[in-house]
């Protein structure tokens, strides 16, 4: 008897493979603190509502509240206000705190502009939100710009080609022992977190 049969319709968190403009729902909103600075943060995860990437996720978008001086405070207010206005909140609504904002934005819908960011400290490149807008009645609009092969995440493990979303053809059994006994060595750079 077999363990299971693969089914592309039965997978966790399909990814978005192109930059562009997407109608999304905020599926996770968490208030927190930046590890190195202690500044307040708002981390958002989005799920695409329509189009060819419907159900795909754009994750770990962090906004940081910086109020070191009056200019940085003005920029923070403008950055957070842009998000709130894109959610359809009218003028005159007072935002009391980042935790209050996190609770308020959860499950709300808007359009986000995303583009490929710079490589992180492990060399991985992810989509980053660059703009917020009211929900687009014309739907999501991928722009065809995919992560280049040189920017493909290294932790695909032979199961998924991150730049195309198609299964990779492994050259060897990914579950086979490396010949060194019963242990399997996995480096930190191979982990997705």
How would you characterize this protein structure?
The chain has 193 residues and is an alpha+beta fold. The protein has two helices and six strands. Strands 1, 2, 3, 4, 5 and 6 form a six-stranded antiparallel β-sheet that branches. A hairpin with an 8-residue loop joins strand 2 and strand 3 (57-64). The longest helix is centred in the middle third of the chain and has 17 residues, at 70-86. The protein is globular. Residues 153-184 have low confidence and may be disordered.
Key terms for this structure?
193 residues; 6 strands
Offer a quick outline of the entry.
Residues 153-184 have low confidence and may be disordered.
- Count of strand segments: 6
Low-confidence stretches: 153-184
Helix/strand structural class? alpha+beta
Question: Percent of residues in beta strands?
Answer: 25-35%
For the termini, the CA-CA separation is 34 Å
Order of helices and strands: EEEHHEEE
């Amino acid at each position: 008897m077999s363990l299971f049969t693969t089914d592309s319709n039965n997978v966790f968190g399909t990814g978005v493979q192109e930059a562009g403009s997407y109608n999304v729902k905020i599926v996770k909103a968490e208030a927190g603190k930046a590890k190195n600075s202690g500044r307040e943060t708002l981390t958002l995860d989005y799920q695409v509502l329509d189009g060819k990437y419907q159900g795909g996720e754009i994750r770990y978008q962090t906004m940081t509240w910086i109020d070191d001086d009056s200019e940085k405070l003005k920029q923070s207010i403008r950055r957070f206000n842009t998000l709130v206005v894109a959610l359809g909140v009218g003028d005159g609504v007072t935002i009391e705190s980042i935790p209050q904002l996190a609770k308020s934005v959860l499950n709300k819908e808007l359009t986000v502009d995303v583009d490929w960011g710079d490589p992180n400290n492990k060399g991985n490149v992810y989509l980053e939100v660059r703009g917020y807008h009211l929900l687009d009645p014309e739907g999501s609009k991928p722009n065809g710009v995919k992560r280049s092969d040189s920017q493909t995440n290294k932790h695909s493990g032979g199961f998924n080609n991150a730049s195309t979303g198609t299964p990779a053809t492994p050259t060897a059994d990914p579950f086979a022992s490396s010949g060194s006994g019963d242990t399997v060595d996995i480096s930190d750079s191979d982990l997705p977190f």
